[in-house]
Amino acid sequence: MNKFIFVSGGVCSSLGKGVAASSIGALLESRGLNVRMVKCDPYINVDAGTMSPYQHGEVYVTDDGAETDLDLGNYARFTKGRLSLANSITTGQVYESVIRKEREGKYLGKCVQVIPHITDEIKSRILTVANEDTDNDIVIIEIGGTVGDIESIPFLEAARQMIHEQGKKNAISVHLTLIPEVACGELKTKPTQHSVKTMLETGIQPDILICRSPVMLDEPTCRKIAQFTNVDRDAVFTSPDINTTIYQIPMVFFDQKLDEVILRKMGIESRHADMRPWHSVMEKFASRQGKVRIGVIGKYMDINDTYISLYAALFHAGLENGVNVELEKLDSSALEDKDNTDDILGKNGLNLDGILVPGGFGQRGINGMVKAAAWARENKKPYFGICLGMQIMVIEWARNVLKWTDADSTEFSPDSKHPVVSLLVEQVNVKNYGGTMRLGASETVNEEGSHIMAAYGNEKIIERHRHRYEFSNQYRNEMTNSGLKLAAFNSDGSLVECIEWPHEDHPWGCAVQFHPEYKSKPNKPSPLFKDFIAACIKEQKG
Ligand code: GLN
Known about the structure:
Blueprint (H helix, E strand, L loop, with lengths): L2 E7 L7 H14 L4 E7 L11 H4 L3 E2 L5 E2 L2 H8 L9 E3 H13 L10 H19 L5 E6 L9 H14 L4 E8 L2 E2 L3 E2 L2 H12 L6 E6 L5 H11 L6 E5 L8 H7 L2 H8 L10 H11 L4 E8 L9 H14 L2 E8 L9 H5 L8 E4 L8 H13 L4 E4 L1 H13 L7 E2 L9 E5 L14 E9 L4 H6 L3 E8 L1 E3 L4 H6 L3 E6 L5 E5 L8 E4 L14 H15 L1
Parallel strand pairs: 1-6, 1-7, 2-5, 2-6, 7-10, 10-11, 12-13, 12-14, 14-15, 15-23, 16-17
Antiparallel strand pairs: 3-4, 8-9, 17-20, 18-19, 18-21, 21-22, 22-23
Helix pairs in contact: 1-3, 1-9, 4-5, 5-6, 12-18, 14-15
The structure holds glutamine.
């Protein structure tokens, strides 16, 4: 079976299309179906890797090293299907390969056009995902942007063609819209009516509507929407604002029988839904007790999407440890040029139980992060460093323990006399920015007696990377002689992947060069996040 569900959005962005698409995936998986998720991004960048977090939010990295849209992270947290470069289709990739084929003379003298050449390329990429695994049942294709945007027209046109070619039972359209509330709590359906009209202009009649609304829509409103949009009444669903967690959304849709309607429309017979994993998440959510306060100290802290997988992983770790994880997102520049770190982070300030310094790029705010790491080390607060956060831990140790006051990464200070973090050898001659970092999954070998070994319970682990700089091997001896623990290496031992503060002096200081947050799931938190939160709880209790 190879069937297709196209998920589009209307009225405005940020309605939760990614979570809705992921939840549909989760519901279909709960029925025993094999689902693959695809994101179509209408931007001209070839991938998300070169975009600023302010433009784009997090860059999600797959095992095969693709730098993709953050929605792939949602897919990974809600569904099981494999995700790789093929699951992220951008306008940039599509045009790049069409233009390359044109230069190679592959179009045999034809005039190369948006229809059929660009749309054929989009369709063939979607079919590649569908055919990659023989046991695949359904591909869910989320089309980025909002219907009516100029950029998304080729993707919607490709969807229209596929729905026509595959037939109604094999390809359907799910459209997500907004039902806004105006004065006196009145819910308005007009934007949804217009949004469906815009869909009809592209030639697609939505089969299913999901209406984002502050509350569950009542029967008359659903009937009205159905009447104006040619959508069956029982195919109009609500995605209400919820104040629990996004992991409730699969249950919210299940309770409205969204999965049943999809299966009926597509003529799929399946077993009964097994929603136990989602019940279990909600049970853990409801039974959390107490809290730990984690300071996430980095850059771009005013936008939630920058570290979406990281925040998700902290949340998952809280569920597993039965505790609320309260986040204080602090721009590290707030700590720079000040001597009162403890007033800001300690008992009389944010009252933090642990510090997490996440990944990041560029010089701004670095010294503030170093201060946060020093505070955690001196005050025996658990510290978790990820990628840049590990490089910060190295710099802090070199400056404050080894007293090399100018120690730095060559990323920030190319002429430092103590370049304790420096460019990966294979990066030295790299000129292009896009797709050229150390990217994707590789093996890490953990040392006996380390926090990381205890967390994973395994000597060999696979995690994903995204960086150009690394721990400088020339300082290995001085670092270890002064007490810093080199706790994990890559498989040939040439790169340091994890460092830890001496266990006899500090309860839990651990930093890794990879990004464990990408693989964390609500029912299966990343081991290091789980242990970090456990260490925070332990220290808080004293
Ligand atoms: N800027 C650092 C590097 O490139 C860290 C990257 C990251 O945190 N993802 O090595």
